[in-house]
Specification:
Elements lengths: L13 H8 L30 H9 L5 H11 L27 H12 L4 H17 L10 H14 L5 H13 L4 H24 L2
Helix pairs in contact: 2-8, 3-8, 4-5, 4-7, 5-7, 7-8
């Protein structure tokens, strides 16, 4: 007789992350998400009307639509030397962990996505995308990822035509939002929004 799998709780760590990496997606995970399905609040982002600041804020609040991806692609295709300058942020020190599922910041990202009411199949895609980012960033602790590091990886992928950006875009949002007490995470979330706003500005200029 096959033992029934225990549904992880929102407070679990490695078990929670591992459950969202399983294929096929587990239906018992629906109970963890605030809405449990794709039926969640819609965001008022109007194509060609919303300002770059509004687009960046909508991304922070959970919007993954075309206005965001257009802005990000425009950023990736621009000269990095033209991007807004920033001061170097000091990453928090953290013990290296070699198993992705054991990274506490990833569990925090899953909790953040669940609290936002993301569909479970989307959360699984975000977790999978962050695991690929983790590999590309030499398995460094995500707690120390900077916005510029993440953009650099996605830019390299874009140049060679490998991988999508939609899921990593959403994944890092919840990575930084999930670290509620981290000043560094707040700084990197703000920096990512600054870069996204810059990309949205380029998109708007291109359409004039």
């Amino acid at each position: 007789m096959i033992a029934k799998r225990k549904t992880p709780t929102i407070d679990d760590g490695p078990e929670l992350v591992a459950a969202f990496l399983e294929r096929p997606i587990r239906n018992d995970l629906r109970a963890l998400s605030k809405f449990g399905s794709i039926d969640r609040p819609r965001f008022k982002v109007r194509e060609g009307v919303s300002s770059p600041t509004e687009i960046a804020q909508a991304w922070r609040d959970g919007f993954n639509g075309r206005a965001v991806t257009d802005a990000f692609f425009r950023l990736l295709e621009s000269d990095p030397n033209s991007w807004p300058r920033r001061e170097v942020a000091k990453a928090p020190s953290a013990r290296k962990l070699d198993v992705f599922e054991e990274l506490p910041e990833i569990a925090e990202a899953v909790r953040s996505a669940c609290d936002a009411g993301e569909a479970i199949h989307h959360i699984r895609s975000y977790v999978t995308a962050m695991k690929k980012l983790w590999t590309d960033l030499n398995r460094s602790r995500p707690v120390g990822w900077t916005a510029d590091n993440v953009v650099a990886v996605l830019r390299r992928r874009h140049v060679i035509g490998v991988g999508s950006v939609q899921y990593p875009l959403a994944g890092v949002r919840y990575l930084w939002l999930g670290q509620k007490s981290s000043k560094f995470a707040k700084t990197e979330l703000a920096r990512f929004m600054q870069l996204l706003e810059f990309g949205a500005t380029l998109t708007k200029k291109a359409k004039l």
